[in-house]
Design goal:
The complex is a heterodimer. Chain A is of the alpha/beta class. Chain A is 34% helix and 14% strand. Chain A has 8 helices and 8 strands, in the order E-E-H-H-E-H-E-H-E-H-E-E-E-H-H-H. In chain A, the strands form 2 sheets. A 4-stranded antiparallel β-sheet of chain A has the order 1-6-7-8. A 4-stranded parallel β-sheet of chain A has the order 2-3-4-5. In chain A, strand 4, helix 4 and strand 5 form a beta-alpha-beta unit. The longest helix of chain A has 14 residues. Chain A is globular and about 65 Å long. Chain A starts with 5 loop residues before the first strand and ends in a 9-residue tail after the last helix. Chain B is an alpha/beta fold. Chain B has 15 helices and 19 strands. Chain B has a 5-stranded parallel β-sheet. In chain B, strand 15, helix 12 and strand 16 form a beta-alpha-beta unit. In chain B, helix 2 packs across helix 5, helix 6 runs parallel beside helix 8 and helix 12 runs parallel beside helix 15. In chain B, 61% of the residues are buried. Classes of the chains: A alpha/beta, B alpha/beta. The interface between A and B is large, with 60 and 84 residues.
Chain lengths: 197, 472
Amino acid sequence: MKAISKVSGRAIPFGRKNVDTDIIIPARWLKTTTREGMGKGAFETVRREAGNVFDDPEYIGAPILIAGDNFGCGSSREHAAWALLDMGIMAVIAPGFSDIFSSNAFKNGILTIELRQSAIDRLMEVAAAAPIDIDLDSQSVTTPFQDRYEFQIDPFRKHCLMNGLDEVGMTMAQDDAIATYEERLTQEKPWQQPVMR
Amino acid sequence: MPKTLYEKIWDAHVVDQRDDGTALIYIDRHLVHEVTSPQAFEGLRLTGRKVRRADLTLAVPDHNVPTTPRLDADGKPVPIADPDSAAQLAALARNAPEFGIRYIRATDREQGIVHVVGPEQGFTLPGTTLVCGDSHTAAHGALGALAFGIGTSEVEHVLATQTLLLKRSKSMEIRVEGELAPGVTPKDLILHIIGHIGAAGGNGHVIEYRGSVFENMSIEGRLTVSNMSIEAGARAGLIAPDEKTFAYLKDRPMAPKGADWEAATEYWRTLTTDEGAVFDASITIDAADVEPTVTWGTSPEDVVPIGGTVPDPMSFADPSKQAAAQKSLDYMKLTPGTKMTDVTVEHVFIGSCTNSRIEDLRAAADIVRGRTRASNVKSVLVVPGSGLVKYQAEREGLDRVFVDAGFEWREPGCSACLGMNPDKVPAGERCASTSNRNFVGRQGPGARTHLVSPAMAAAAAVTGRLTDIREL
């Protein structure tokens, strides 16, 4: 994961609620064995709508997406996060996120920022005209019009994001603790493993 | 301190507790399929890492496999026509042996949808943690396993370390007491629950389903309910294991045997929420309020009793929901006030990890016997959840019931639930489906989906419209 501390730029005022990961990236785009190139399929069905924000030249290459509540619900496909990254999205701001999407976004260095609906409404207005700044260190979202919203983030996630840490590598360094747990498990619940009898 | 079932399973799996609230959680079981694993295996290869516990991992192809016959007249595997599907399936067939993981082939009788195969093989056990790169992993909670879907980065993390870094979720109790009325199935109940708490109602929570309705429910029914926990936003569902669970698991191929079985059941009997344990949220539903239920929109929360009508978007209090409902109705091509039973369908899909088990097929066959496909219905796909379900159904003659009625009896897989294989609903056409998601484009670009129970799907197939099975 690349370290990330600030995201600044235009924000796509999407605003829609219950955006599922089938909307972010439809199933036909999942037939791949790599993580790249999925931006082409991102929001495919929304892009069929006339006047959609994703094809508005104003927002091409914008690094921030503003959405409604329960963003990323449904399928666990990490392809949704990869598709956003491929579009150049580095942060999503919404009143709430699905648990799995939020975790997938984090693993890919995408910030998922939860703000109350009134803040979202204001940022939707601002997004139409001006850039937005997100600062992870101070946990704040600001606009050129003196708006300032603070957000909460899990301290562990913040630490990993700011330092660009490789989670698998970090956990592998705890191999002794895992081995100790496994020894205890074998003693206490020998019937539970191995699976292959 | 009294504990919930969730807390008991969580506490038993903490390898390391960090001060910031994150815990390293041990994963007992890992199911792998072809769509969400290639990039994880590639990640291991690039870093020279191995699979820590291949013996706790089981790989099954399910999403891309066609449901047409898999062997030709000479008994040779039929090639997969779609090159992208073929490549993804080939990647799993290559990765599993390379990393020492047991792999069920598409042509094996044990093959099926991962969430049907896990319980059926006794891979899923009460009190274990089970993950899969698929959100419907929530299904396995029906057996008292803490089971949830993960992304591909997490798949790689579990493959390499057999653990996940997690924060404990909040707990939600959904209690349903009383008895479901005749004609009301577990699918109707879970659709009703999602309508009640909303598609985001369970976000951040693990749901435990409690009360007499779940105690009296079959394991197949519990799997249907727990499966759709994710459609209410909950990452996992749980139902305390009981004698029904043990009877279901006994003698399954991967379940403990002999003295191990005795020791296992002794432990499993402790897996209940203690008297006095506190949930972060509690919802109570009266079983008598649940009717046969269908969806009208493009979110699983868009439900209405079959006797109801398409709602007016303006009837919703929340302005954002009004706009969403209008968009849904435009997509679904429905007019407010239309009776749900006047909605005609061109397609019916009976299958998916929600409703493709033997009991589901029996319920559908019971409706179909002596009836035939309605003339306006172009296709009815019946896709068993696994080769073993298919075999059992054929022993019971259910395949004949479906074929005689003009339905198609297919090979197991995820099929038209998400249409990654050739099974899709054409654009602009309408499908009564026993699957779990009525999202825009889910069953194919432009496809319109109504979620229903297996009995209601069968009824729609023979009447050509959404139907109240109590009036059939």
